[in-house]
Each structure stands twice: as structure tokens, then as C-alpha cells.
Design a protein that fits this description.
heterodimer, A: 269 residues, alpha/beta, Rossmann fold, 6-stranded mixed β-sheet, 4-stranded antiparallel β-sheet, 35% helix, B: 328 residues, 8-stranded mixed β-sheet, 12 strands
Chain lengths: 269, 328
Amino acid sequence: MPTSPDVTPLHPSPLLHAIGLVKVFHASGGREVRAVDGVGFSIGTGEVLGIVGESGSGKSTIARMVLRLIEPSAGRIMFAGQDITALGDEAMRRLRGDMQIVFQNPHSALNGRRTIGEAIAEPLRVQTIARGAALHARVDRLLDLVSLPRAFRHRYPHELSGGQKQRVCIARALALEPRFLVLDEPTSALDVSVQAQILDVLGELRRELSLTYLFISHNLAVVRTLCDRVLVMSQGRVVEEGPVAAVFANPSQAYTRTLLDSVPRLPRI
Amino acid sequence: MNALLAIEDYHLAIPTFDGPAQVLNGIDLALDAGETLGIVGESGCGKTVLARTILGIGPGRAACTGGRILFEGRDVAAFSERDWRGIRGVKISMIFQDPMTYLNPLFTIGRQLGDAIAAHARAQGAPRPGRAERRTRAAELLAQVALREPQRALDSYPHQLSGGMRQRVLIALALSGKPRLLIADEPTTALDVTVQAQVLRLLRDLVDRLRLTVVMISHDVGAIAALTERIAVMYAGNVVEEGPTTRVLARPLHPYTRGLLAALPAIDGEIRRLAGVPGTIPSLIDPPTGCRFHPRCSRATAICAAERPAMRRADPAHSVACHHADLS
């Protein structure tokens, strides 16, 4: 199992570069849990990197550290050539326009008392980017982007299906025109037919807006569908890394093979 | 011969503020002893309500609005609470999705299995087995579900076991009364993929060894295909297609089954763009007329909105409810 804390960047100038990330949580009884234990990777501009692993592998912790929603215990995060590991709150707040996140559960990610329009407009208000008619027009454009009817701006979350809510969350994440999106299990709470729609939307947005994604998932087949490269994680460490096609067709590590063999296959159609 | 379980034109409605939701809309299914049936469908299709209704634990305010469910030839609607006590966990057992919720966190695994063993003895009018005997039987049950170190597990509390181990305990509990029918509702959904594979292998092995009769409910076609010989596809309260699992998956006849399979990302083969099923699931309070799938169906014509399609046979084992299905 490769345990080198760093992975040589495959890109001359990666958009995101994580070096030797470590996260230690303190459990009861003074026990230490190394949720992430020396993980490095880089994501080139326009690339989609998948992180796949079972529960407790550390994948969601990485997603949050990359955006500094939680602070790494050790290691560095470089974004667009800048070391953001120690940036102050104000600088980080400005940077958040460039890096956004979509969470797993769209039902808990939206405020039930706010309309869809208000939810999507929120980042624009917080960052005082637009107001009035300009804000209205931006929200319309964001709804268009995720293929929701513009009339949805007046609706409340409970009137929408899970897939529609996740589209709203994606629209909200795109409001500040970020270059980089962290997608943390964005389709895990959805039915497969809806999952296919959301994956399609994400693929199209990536092409249209030249977005870069870090895609976190426990679902290998979903990762294979959307990602260019994949990082396989287990117990806080990187087990294997490589282009999706190569890793899935010919995994070099036993753990990756076990994961792949565990997915139930359908009879060939 | 009578089917072990026969569901005949079963209709179920649940009252809501906006009127009754017609969650089951004429379900026909039959299961002989020794058969394995998978029921697959997405959220809200009625699969879980159907499973719970078979066991008489459906939604409290739900009302049967037509048809019946027969178990061993008897209408389950006529069962008294006393009858049910001799059926639930004895003749029909169920395993649920979330293995944590269905174990009592305050008692050891040994105590909970022992209680079930004592309850089954009581239901059969046998004397209450002693402490040592309960423990021996409990250990046997855990060994049957291939739980490592069964003696140690007996003295453990649920939180000390992993998700996969807890699901094995629940399967052991479900099998403790030697049920004639096992209902498995999303038994692997809450588990990690490697654990899921182990639990599916265990269930497959138990089905073969104990000749279990199983109804498995899942949204995961792959998990169903790993366990059941027959599959029924549900959509918005209807069974739209039913047949041998391999045949339905290899040659799906209903447009919804096709859409569902086309939406599945694959783990091998060519990486293709996924086609979702356009639109969203309909309201069951005001469901579409005719075929409930027609508003989302690319093949829909006038007849689809006007007339509910009957189940038609493509061959003796494989049937489909679609006006336009190619049966040749």
C-alpha cells in the first residue's frame, strides 16, 4: 500500500493541490482517530477527480478540509497556486466565491422557510454581488442552467422532489461562478433515474462552464461515469490512484479489486 | 396447489389532507414455497407499503379498497391480533434496512435472541427453554449466519458490533422461528459495498441451504438480481412487469424497466452517457389516467392516457402491462 504523503502532480499547474493532509479527531477517553492520514493529490483545471471509499475511509473529511470547512491537523492546500492553508477568515470568504460545495442530502441543505429564489440568491447577497433586477436575472439564469422552470423561484423546498432540490443546491453552488466544485455524494440520496439526470447535468455544466470537480462517492459505478481520475481510499489513506479507465479495468491493489468485485453485476444485456 | 402467498388485485389507499393517495393500485403477485421474488422500484412506488401490508404492519390509517392478500390460503385481513402473534416472526419474518434501529441497544445480542427463542417456544406451546438451552440455540443461530466468534457476540451490545454484524444478527433473529416466508426490505442498502456483497452471499447461501421462500424489496436491481429468481418491477403503485430475473433484465419489455436499466451506471464495459427517465414520479393523490407511466413515456399514445394496460404475457413466465410492448 503506497503511503507516501505526497503524490507528484500530474499537471504542470494544478488548480488544486493537496499535500500531506492529516486530520486527527479526538475521541472520548483521549483516543486519537486519524481520519485522514497523509493524503496528497492534485486536480488539473477542468478535470474531475473522484475519491471513492467505504464509510470511515476519510473521503468526506477530505472534502471538508479542501474548502477549510474543517481545519487540517497537518498538510497544505494550494488553490490556483496560492497556499490557502493559513488564510484568514476574510480572505477565505472572498475565495469561497471560487470554490463551492454540494452536499449529499438536498432535503436538509435547503431552508424550508425560504423560497427557491431566495436560496439561490443567498450567496449573491452575502457577497454583495448583485441586487434588484440584476439579482433577479442572475437567479433566472441559474435556474436555466440546471434545467428548472423559472417559476420555481416562488416555490418552497417541500414542493420539490429530491432531484429538483439537488438541482437547486447545484444552482446555489454555481451562483458565484466558482471554478471549483466539491461534490460530496451528490446523488446518494436520489433514485437511480434521478441520479442519471443529475450526473448528466453535472457533466454538461462542467463542459459549458469549464468547471473542475472533486467528486466524493461510495458508488464506484457513479465515479466511473463522471470522473477522469480516481483516488481509492481506505482507513484514511490512499490505496490506489489513476485514470478511471485503467483503475477499473485493471486495479493494481487487492483492496480496489475487492471493492470492484463487491458490486453486484447485472446479467449482460 | 395453492400458492404460499397470493396477492389478488390488491388496492390500498392512505388518507391525506389532499385526499386519498392510491398507493397500491391493483397488485397481482403469487409466490409458491421455495420461490424467491424481488420487488424493485424507486421511492414512492409502493414496494415497502406492500411488504409491510403482507405482514399486517402497513400504515395505520391505510384502507384496503379492493382485492385481498392470501397467506397459506387465508385472507390476512381476517387475522386477529392473536392470529398475527402466531404468524409474525413465526411463519412470516422480516428483515429491515437499518440494522441498528431494530435491535434494542440496552440488551445483549444473546438476551435478544434468547427472548425470540423463548417466544417461539411459547407460540408452539412448548415449555420455556432454560437459560443454557437458549444460549446454545442462540449460538447456533449466529453460527448459521456465519458470524465470527458467536460466543463473544452473544455477550455484546448492538453498538459493539459493525453494521454488517448487526444485519447478520437480524437475519438470525428472523430465521429463529423457521419462517415459511422471509420478507427482506432493502436488507443491504445501509451497508458498505464489501459488506453488502457478504450479506448477499449469506442470504443466497441460506436460501439454498434452508430452501427459504423470500420476497426481497429493493431499489437496487443489482442486489435483487444477486438473490432472486423472479423479479417484479413496480411503478406508482402498479406492477408493470414481472418475470424470471435474468429474462427481465436481458429483455426488458416495459418502457419504465428499460429506463431504469438505462439509468444504471455500469462498473465495467463501455462508459456511456446515462439516460435518466425524464420527468418525476406522479402524485398518487391525483395519478395520471390510464397507464400511470404515460406522462413520462416516449412511446405513449392516446390509448395510454385513456385505458389502463392489462398484464399481458410475453411467454408463460414473463408478463408486462404496456399497450405498446412488443410481445413477439
